């Protein structure tokens, strides 16, 4: 396991040195950090091919490309609990992109979250994961962005978070607390494949950015790594090796197949941000790298929730309330409210089949034996209904329309409809006791839970920034004191 993100006595300089370092770093962007241990990007030897492969593995394009926008020109609106953060233009445009970045500045941005002008980036840019990228890999990425990407001379929208998050300097204190700058060391007890997998999972593929729960200050809770977390309206489930709460019972091949196609028959499909990660990144990884990732993921220490008596994919059977519905077909019953069974019959059964068993070839998945229905968190069920699925891989397109009333949606279901439908589905195909409520549907429709950080900001607690910086300095002070007392 990678050591935790908090500053440890071993690598934290004394307070004055730290402050001087920070200012030097901000002034000239030279705080490139220590040399990084780790393996090279890929088996491929052609440098540009290797660099392009890395950019895919690190999924830079997913965030830095807006829907229907030019590659890497930025402008994707990333909803965070504290407001919308826009990705920036990272094409080599000198005026609007990163054309003027030196390699050292690029390394600073990618591994330390510090822009060329010295301002801090928000951790929506996953520099906390990229911090372990090797010098070699960062260099390859730099070459790719300078020479392999077409410049786009247009600005990305500006990010304007509410106060105090609008003060980028507050991220400096945050980084002191939560950015791990320690290089990843090879674990000699483990295989090459495992080590390669760890490097990819913890670094480029940044699985933890979505699957690890976050604390009050939006930091990844490293002790609960990979135990599941909300990502906007979706929920990235527990993927630790636990046999019931996690994916401990998935085979190596199932996991590899899921990562490269987004589908593990009778277990799970990838929609939302996981669908995007599969489409833009994981499907392009070599078999060797996918196997390395699966090898490592399958050893992630189990985190168990005692309420999970079975795996998420092990609930429900083929069933239908069709008998009771005879003669009452249609999306809505004119005499009154539609029932959940009618909503299912009218909107879903054409693809997922009348008993919810899906199609034989698995293109339309079964709704029982489906991790979305078997999860204790109903968000992915609600999100799948509202936003549908749209994922293209070499296997073709997996497409389900949304039901939120968006421009491509044929039918608009109300929050109340989704409560009736969701509860019908959970009762027949899902985990007993889990329910869908109207406030949950409304929250998912809005884009997910918002954090108490915003409340703090709205209350105008300017002290939050000062507090973060003070806490950081205090921790540094305490650990350097501990170190001094250890020496004496
Ligand atoms: C999960 C989304 C995400 C991914 C993946 C991502 N970025 Fe970013 N990146 C962002 C966001 C958002 C910002 C702007 C943050 C801000 O304004 O504070 C950003 C900012 C940057 C900047 C600063 C540019 C500037 O001057 O404004 C650079 C450089 C950068 N990213 C490079 C990369 C590279 C290289 C990769 C792949 C290795 C990558 N990013 C992957 C979201 C992402
Ligand atoms: C951008 C966010 C994001 C990233 C990065 C990400 N995931 Fe996911 N992951 C999700 C979400 C959201 C889901 C739920 C998808 C759904 O049910 O449609 C998910 C689902 C999964 C599942 C299915 C679990 C189940 O029981 O349904 C597995 C396995 C998984 N992810 C593994 C990984 C691995 C391994 C990585 C890194 C190589 C990774 N994920 C990176 C967001 C992410
Ligand atoms: C036009 C066909 C079609 C219709 C109509 C349809 N679906 Fe789907 N559904 C799909 C496809 C295709 C997938 C994705 C399969 C994949 O990812 O490989 C899917 C996936 C899902 C998933 C899994 C999503 C995930 O994140 O893992 C759920 C749950 C689901 N559908 C529920 C429903 C419900 C409820 C309805 C009715 C409101 C519905 N579907 C209507 C085709 C359809």
Largest sheet: 2 strands, antiparallel
Shape verdict = globular
Q: Helical stretch count?
A: 21
- Distance linking N and C termini: 30 Å
What ligands are attached or bound here?
A: heme C
Strand order of the largest sheet: 1-2
What's the number of extended β-strand segments? 8
Helix content: 40-55%
Order of helices and strands: HHHEEHHHHHHEEHEEHHHHHHHEEHHHH
* Average predicted confidence as pLDDT: 84
Uncertain ranges: 1-46, 328-332, 454-462
Rounded radius of gyration (Å):
24 Å
Task: Describe the structure concisely for a colleague.
By secondary structure, the chain is mainly α. The protein is 41% helix and 6% strand. The protein folds into three domains: 15-185, no CATH class; 195-297, Cytochrome Bc1 Complex, Chain D, domain 2 (Orthogonal Bundle); 322-446, Cytochrome c-like domain (Cytochrome Bc1 Complex, Chain D, domain 2).
Question: Any key phrases for this structure?
Answer:
Cytochrome Bc1 Complex, Chain D, domain 2, globular, disordered N terminus, 6% strand, 21 helices, 8 strands, 488 residues, mainly alpha, 3 domains, binds heme C, two-stranded antiparallel ribbon
Description:
- The longest helix has 25 residues.
- This protein has three domains: 171 residues, no CATH class; 103 residues, Cytochrome Bc1 Complex, Chain D, domain 2, CATH 1.10.760; 125 residues, Cytochrome c-like domain (Cytochrome Bc1 Complex, Chain D, domain 2, Orthogonal Bundle), CATH 1.10.760.10.
- The N terminus is likely disordered.
- The radius of gyration is 24 Å and the shape is globular.
- It has 21 helices and eight strands.
- It is mainly alpha-helical.
- It binds heme C (HEC) (3 copies).
């Amino acid at each position: 396991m990678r050591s935790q993100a908090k500053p440890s006595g071993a690598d934290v300089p004394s307070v004055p040195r730290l402050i001087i370092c920070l200012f030097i770093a901000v002034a000239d962007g030279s705080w490139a950090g220590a040399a990084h241990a780790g393996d090279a990007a890929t088996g491929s030897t052609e440098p540009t091919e290797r660099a392009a492969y890395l950019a895919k593995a690190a999924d830079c394009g997913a965030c830095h490309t807006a829907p229907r926008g030019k590659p890497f020109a930025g402008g994707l609106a990333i909803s965070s609990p504290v407001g919308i953060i826009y990705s920036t233009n990272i094409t080599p445009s000198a005026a609007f992109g990163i054309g003027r970045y030196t390699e050292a500045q690029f390394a600073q941005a990618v591994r330390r979250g510090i822009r060329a002008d010295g301002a801090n980036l928000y951790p929506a840019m996953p520099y906390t994961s990229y911090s372990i990228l090797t010098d070699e890999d960062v260099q390859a990425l730099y070459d790719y962005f300078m020479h392999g990407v077409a410049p786009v001379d247009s600005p990305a929208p500006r990010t304007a978070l509410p106060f105090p998050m609008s003060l980028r300097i507050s991220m400096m204190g945050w980084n002191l607390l939560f950015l791990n700058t320690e290089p990843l060391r090879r674990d000699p007890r483990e295989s090459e494949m495992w080590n390669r997998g760890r490097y990819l999972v913890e670094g480029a593929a940044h699985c933890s950015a979505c699957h690890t729960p976050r604390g009050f200050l939006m930091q990844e809770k490293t002790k609960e790594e990979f135990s599941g977390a909300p990502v906007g309206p979706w929920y990235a489930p527990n993927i630790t090796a636990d046999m019931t709460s996690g994916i401990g019972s998935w085979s190596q091949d199932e996991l590899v197949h899921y990562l490269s196609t987004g589908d593990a028959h009778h277990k799970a499909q990838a929609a939302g941000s996981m669908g995007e990660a599969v489409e833009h990144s994981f499907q392009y990884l070599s078999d060797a790298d996918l196997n390395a990732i699966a090898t490592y993921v399958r050893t992630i220490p189990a985190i168990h929730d005692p309420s999970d008596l079975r795996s998420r994919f092990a609930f429900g059977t083929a069933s239908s309330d069709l008998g009771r519905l005879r003669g009452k077909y249609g999306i809505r019953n004119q005499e009154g409210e539609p029932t959940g069974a009618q909503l299912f019959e009218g909107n879903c059964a054409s693809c997922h089949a009348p008993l919810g068993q899906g199609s034989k070839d698995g293109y339309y998945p079964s709704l029982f034996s489906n991790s979305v229905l078997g999860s204790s968190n109903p968000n992915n069920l609600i999100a799948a209904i509202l936003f549908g699925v749209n994922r293209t891989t070499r296997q073709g397109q997996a497409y389900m329309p949304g039901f939120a009333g968006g421009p491509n949606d044929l039918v608009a279901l109300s929050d109340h409809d989704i409560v009736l439908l969701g509860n019908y589905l959970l009762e027949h195909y899902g985990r007993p006791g889990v329910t869908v409520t109207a406030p949950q549907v409304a929250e998912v429709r809005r884009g997910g839970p918002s954090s108490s950080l915003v409340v703090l900001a709205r209350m105008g607690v300017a002290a939050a920034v000062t507090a973060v910086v003070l806490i950081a300095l205090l921790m540094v002070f305490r650990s350097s004191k501990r170190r001094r007392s250890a020496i004496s």
